[in-house]
Amino acid sequence: MNYLRKMTGFTKSPPRVGTTEILWSWIGAFLGISAVAFLHYEILNETDLVMIIGSFGASAVLIYGAIKSPLAQPRNLIGGHVLSAVIGVASYQFLGAHMWIAASVAVATAIALMHTTKTLHPPGGATALIAVIGGPEIHDLGYLYALMPAGLGAIIMLVVALLVNNIPRTRRYPEFWF
C-alpha cells in the first residue's frame, strides 16, 4: 500500500511560462537545430558524415526551453553526449550480435557514467541508443560518432544557446560551466 501511495505525487505542477519565454525558446530551438541540420543536409550531403541525430531534439528542449535546469548546462550537454556516444559505440562493437543486450547496456552504462562524471543529460541516453540501433551510416562512423555528430553538434547548439539565451534581460545562460 505504501508503494502505491508514493505514486500519487506530492507537489503542484509548475506555473505556465510566459509568451516571451516561449518565443525565446522557439527562436533558440529553431536556430540551433537549423545550424546542425543545415550542415548535415547542405554541407555534408555528399559525404558519409552525419551532423544531426534525434537526441539533439531533446537537447534543444533543455538548452533553449529549460535553461536553468542542471541537466541543460554546458558540462552536461557536451559531456553527456560525448560520453554516451563512446559507450554506445563500444556497446555496439562488443555486443552488436545481440542487439537487445547492446541497446540495454549502452543506455544503462551511459546513465551510470553520466551520473559518475556529473554530466547527466537525458538526451545522452538517446545518443548511446542511436549508436547501437542506428543504421550503417551511424555504425560506419565508429568512434568518430562521439566527435561528430555527438560532440561537434552539441557544441554548435551550445554556441547558439549562449547567444540566444543571453539576448533578453530576463534570461541568463549558463547557470554554471563546471
Explain how this protein is built.
This protein is mainly alpha-helical. It has one domain (20-164). It contains 8 helices and no strands. It has helices at 2-5, 19-43, 55-65, 74-95, 99-117, 123-133, 136-139, 144-164. Helix 3 (55-65) packs antiparallel against helix 6. The longest helix is centred in the N-terminal third of the chain and has 25 residues, at 19-43. It is globular. The mean pLDDT is 96.
Features:
mainly alpha; 178 residues
Describe the structure in brief.
With about 180 residues, the protein is mostly helical. The chain is built from eight helices and no strands. It has one domain.
- Intertermini distance: 42 Å
Low-confidence stretches: none
Helix/strand/pairing category? mainly alpha
Main sheet properties: none
- State the total count of DSSP E strands: 0
Task: Itemize the secondary structure elements and their pairings.
Layout: H1 2-5, H2 19-43, H3 55-65, H4 74-95, H5 99-117, H6 123-133, H7 136-139, H8 144-164
